[in-house]
């Protein structure tokens, strides 16, 4: 086994570990994931050196990452305050250089850069590794399998009426699977089912009936789990996301087999969906109740949060407040509104990115992610039969929409899954690669 193959296995292990560790929302779990990703990237680099094989990394995303690294390091080296986590007070530092990129607290931004740095190294390695068809589909199989496992666990929890988060003694009414926060679970499921659907479609054209049955039912389980979970966005994005997936993958979905074969598939799908509906309908009452709350009370305080975040952007438009510092600056701008509780995120990743990285940094992030999405669309237009690209487009599109009303990109596990899909969209294609 080559070092590059070992690196792929390490990345696969990280894809399993990240959601199991409650999404890597705690500092300890996230730092462990950072070390895991850094090790996988190091093994990949050693493999390139040992095999004397130059990595194929597109220049545009590489350039964006270098610019973000320079901006983040410059901010971190120019702290404006010292934050005391015990008193939650901030003392000004006289060495701050006005006019240059800076941060509100060096320690906070340094930790954020560790997270982003480890993910950046992994992303660079994945850009090259996913060029290999087998490696790409292996990683997507791991994504789909993990999503199916979490969906089964979440459905079982709802049937049993579980109130204790797995692997902890913490009581909660909003957890699903291994995720403590239901919205994070919904984002994870929305990152998992596109790969499961791609594998199901791929299995239709094979001769392995067991594989076909497993992946079709696996996709249905993950998709249905979105409605059992109480996240409102999970419900809202499910059907439009599926419509987009069917549009992008229609060439492979309806190719071959004739109308009779298609009719048989549709009949089987209706039967399976009916069986699943009979199983899960008793469990969706609370999810429906969440929408009743929306009709009566609206979407909570999100509009006010967005207003406050925009005020912060107006105050720090050029260089932002520094990576990871939203929770430090927010109390100073929200004091007049007397909000209850402590807000660590803006519940809108685009605004939080502008707050922390400034408008230039936000533009670079948009170029990195949006550029990959546009390239993926262009590649898919040229080769619409390629399922891996279609699945990545659907996953990134849903995650991008979710980021408008929540903070999925502030969670370690969701960042990792997004990075895998983005690498698939940015990858350099082989000239005569087979459709996948």
Kindly list the characteristics that best describe this protein.
single chain; 436 residues; mainly alpha; 15 helices; 2 strands
Secondary-structure blueprint:
Elements: H1 3-20, H2 27-50, H3 59-76, E1 81-84, E2 89-92, H4 106-129, H5 133-160, H6 182-204, H7 209-228, H8 232-253, H9 258-280, H10 285-297, H11 302-315, H12 326-334, H13 349-382, H14 387-402, H15 412-426
Antiparallel strand pairs: 1-2
Helix pairs in contact: 1-2, 1-5, 1-15, 2-4, 3-4, 3-13, 4-15, 5-6, 5-7, 6-7, 6-8, 6-14, 6-15, 7-9, 8-14, 11-12, 11-13, 13-14, 13-15, 14-15
Write up this protein.
This protein is mainly α and 436 residues long. The chain has one domain (3-298, 343-426). The protein is built from 15 helices and two strands. It has a two-stranded antiparallel ribbon with strand order 1-2. The longest helix is centred in the C-terminal third of the chain and has 34 residues, at 349-382. The protein is globular and about 70 Å long.
């Amino acid at each position: 086994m080559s070092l590059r193959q070992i690196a792929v296995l390490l990345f696969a292990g990280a894809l399993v570990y990240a959601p199991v560790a409650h999404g890597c929302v705690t500092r300890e779990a996230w730092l462990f994931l950072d070390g895991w990703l850094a090790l996988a990237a190091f093994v990949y680099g050693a493999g390139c050196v040992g095999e004397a094989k130059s990595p194929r990394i597109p220049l545009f995303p590489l350039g964006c990452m270098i610019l973000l690294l320079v901006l983040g390091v410059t901010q971190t080296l120019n702290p404006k305050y010292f934050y005391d986590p015990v008193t939650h007070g901030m003392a000004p530092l006289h060495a701050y250089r006005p006019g240059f990129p800076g941060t509100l607290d060096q320690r906070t931004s340094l930790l954020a850069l560790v997270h982003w740095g480890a993910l950046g190294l992994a992303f660079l390695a994945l850009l090259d590794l996913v060029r290999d068809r087998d490696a790409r589909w292996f990683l997507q199989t791991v994504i789909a399998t993990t999503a199916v496992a979490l969906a089964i666990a979440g459905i079982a929890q709802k049937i049993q009426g579980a109130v204790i988060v797995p692997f902890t003694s913490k009581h909660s009414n909003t957890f699903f699977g291994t995720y403590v926060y239901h919205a994070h679970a919904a984002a994870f499921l929305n990152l998992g089912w596109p790969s499961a659907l791609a594998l199901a479609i791929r299995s239709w054209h094979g001769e392995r009936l067991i594989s076909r049955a497993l992946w079709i039912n696996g996709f249905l389980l993950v998709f249905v789990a979105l409605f059992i979970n109480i996240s409102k966005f999970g419900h809202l994005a499910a059907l439009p996301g599926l419509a987009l997936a069917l549009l992008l993958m229609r060439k492979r979905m309806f190719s071959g087999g004739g109308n009779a074969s298609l009719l048989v598939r549709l009949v089987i799908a209706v039967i399976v969906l009916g069986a699943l509906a009979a199983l899960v309908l008793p469990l969706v009452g609370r999810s429906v109740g969440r929408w009743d709350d929306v009709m009566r009370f609206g979407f909570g305080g999100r509009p006010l949060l967005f207003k406050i975040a925009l005020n912060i952007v107006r105050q720090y438009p050029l260089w932002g407040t520094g990576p990871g510092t939203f929770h430090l600056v927010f109390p100073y701008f929200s004091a007049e509104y007397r909000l209850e509780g402590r807000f660590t995120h803006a519940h809108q990743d685009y605004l939080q990115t502008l707050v922390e990285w400034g408008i230039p940094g936000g533009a670079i992030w948009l170029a990195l992610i949006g550029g990959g999405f546009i390239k993926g669309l262009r590649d898919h237009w040229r080769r619409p039969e390629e399922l891996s690209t279609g699945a990545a487009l659907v996953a990134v599109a849903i995650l991008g929409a979710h980021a408008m009303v929540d903070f999925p990109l502030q969670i370690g596990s969701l960042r990792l899954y997004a990075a895998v899909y983005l690498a698939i969209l940015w990858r350099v294609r082989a000239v005569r690669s087979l459709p996948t």
